Amino acid sequence: MVDVFDLKKYPAEPFKIKTVETVKTITKEHREKAIKEAGYNTFLLKSEDCYIDLLTDSGTNAMSDKQWAGMMIGDEAYAGSRNWLHLEKTVQDIFGFKHVVPTHQGRGAENLLSRIAIKPGQYVPGNMYFTTTRYHQEANGGIFVDIIRDEAHDAGLNVPFKGDICLDKLKKLVDEKGAENIAYVCLAVTVNLAGGQPVSMKNMREVSEYCRPLGIKVMYDCTRFAENAFFIQEQEEGYQDKSIAEIVKEMFSYADGATMSGKKDGIVNIGGFLAMNDDELFGKAKEFVVVFEGMPSYGGMAGRDMEAIAIGLKESLQDSYIEYRVKQIRYLGDRLLEAGIPIIEPVGGHAVFLDAKRFCPHIPQDQFPAQALAAALYVEAGVRSMERGIVSAGRDPKTGENHVPKLETVRLTIPRRVYTYKHMDIVADAVIKLYKHKEDIRGLKFVYEPKQLRFFTARFEHI
Ligand code: PM9
Predict the structure, then answer these.
(1) How many domains is the chain built from?
(2) Same domain? 301 vs 324
């Protein structure tokens, strides 16, 4: 039985709420009309039509009083802003990288990295793909290869550190293609589309020990680095007495560089960066940042944004914050598991993922069960979620065929410091209610399918 008073298992919010935004409920008739007008794509709903908005944890965070105070000391000089110097030093201190290049958000960093580090035809092995990351890798001639451990593709399998890279898969690829044909290894902490699954320190160490002698760089996607560090502290032997900050330092000692979307564990609404140790790579990144983002001292961010992210990065390392953050999500997962709802197990760092294949076994994958389920959940309770399945996976750029991922999921993504446990209860109750009449959910077909990153703007109708 889920016990809301068990503060070790489900810690209370380690903050007081100072500013609030009113949300409203709208009628079921209105929701039915709204989702139809949005082409059954939750991305196309108006925010004001959503009661609890779990579309994403990206840029939807509540900033602290200290971050808001930081916004007031934004130095909006075109070059050499003091907030940039603060951000640069913060990233260097937390992650240990030599060089930092600011970008407007994560995909800005992915664009730069893919341009400077991938030669057309080279392979980019990674622990499962992420939509924008793979887009930039492929747009620059890279060939993405999934080398995550097999268990990550099995939604119901409850094993720790499902985000780990499979060393055998990596070694096989390098043996077959040659180290010189590997652009770099892309290692995401945590793995978003696997369900927010963490990577163990042991795995990071082993990947680095294998790659460094071969001259293969290991570039992290550190978007949810603090959540990953919490899982290591909680579950990996030898880390229980280490602080989150110490764990993060060790994690990144095994990396050659990283891309970051500050909109997640930076606890801000916009921002990002690319970081690395290599001087030559840094030189190239600076050449491109001025073309695509802005001066190397702002990279698409205002001075106030850089101040907020510098402060947010430090706040994400606070042990009490990150424990509450991950365990709040686990609370929602536990409530659903208790009611027999099929979800990705174990519950990861930023979201609970409904397993649409088991939730809607009557809808074949080419009729987009996760897309249909996300739309149905919105109609049921005004809860906005996101498809993370075949629609998000897109098409193979060479063959034009759909990628068919094993995981067909709906992501209930929890913004940081925004919703309370009571909101989690409402979401859980809505999902449980919907599960009772799941047979009513009908499959969908495309009426508009964009070529790039189709999940953002595609439109559907019922079959
Ligand atoms: N993630 C998310 O909702 C927002 C865009 S997709 C709806 O999960 C990783 C692991 C991400 C990520 C964004 C990016 C791109 C890179 N890596 O959105 O460009 O989860 O800041 O970051 C989203 P930006």
Answers:
(1) 2
(2) no
The residue whose CA has the least distance to atom 18 of ligand 1 is 106
The pLDDT profile of the chain, 463 residues, written as one tens digit per residue, is 777 678 889 999 999 999 999 998 899 999 999 999 999 999 999 999 999 999 999 999 999 999 999 999 999 999 999 999 999 999 999 999 999 999 999 999 999 999 999 999 999 999 999 999 999 999 999 999 999 999 999 999 999 999 999 999 999 999 999 999 999 999 999 999 999 999 999 999 999 999 999 999 999 999 999 999 999 999 999 999 999 999 999 999 999 999 999 999 999 999 999 999 999 999 999 999 999 999 999 999 999 999 999 999 999 999 999 999 999 999 999 999 999 999 999 999 999 999 999 999 999 999 999 999 999 999 999 999 999 999 999 999 889 999 999 999 999 999 999 999 999 999 999 999 999 999 999 999 999 999 999 999 999 999 9
CA of 58 to the centre of ligand 1 (A): 7
One domain, residues 35 and 92: no
Question: Are both 323 and 307 inside the same structural domain?
Answer: no
Active site residue 334: no
* 154 is an active site residue: no
Q: Are strands 218-221 and 185-188 parallel, antiparallel or unpaired?
A: parallel
The answer to whether the CB of 250 falls within 8 A of the CB of 201 is yes
Q: Which of 112, 264, 301 maximizes ligand 1 atoms within 8 Å of its Cβ, making it the mutation to test the pocket?
A: 264
In a domain, 343, yes or no: yes
Task: Look up 131 and say whether it is catalytic.
Answer: yes
pTM here? Answer: 0.97
Do 333 and 415 belong to one domain? yes
Same domain for 199 and 88?
A: yes
Nearest CA to ligand 1 atom 24: 106
| Ligand 1 center from residue 104 Cα (angstroms) | 12
Q: In whole angstroms, what is the distance from residue 425 CA to residue 335 CA?
A: 8
Domain boundary among 316, 337, 372: 316
Question: Ligand 1: distance of its center to the CA of 223 in Å?
Answer: 8
Burial of 43 (0-12, 13-18, 19+ CB in 10 A): middle
- 164 near 199, Cβ under 8 Å? yes
Domain membership flag for residue 7: no
Look at residues 261, 288, 316 and tell me which one is the last residue of a structural domain: 316
Query: Does 5 fall in a domain?
Result: no
Give, using CA atoms, the residue closest to atom 3 of ligand 1.
56
Nearest-5° Cα angle at 309, 303 to 312: 145
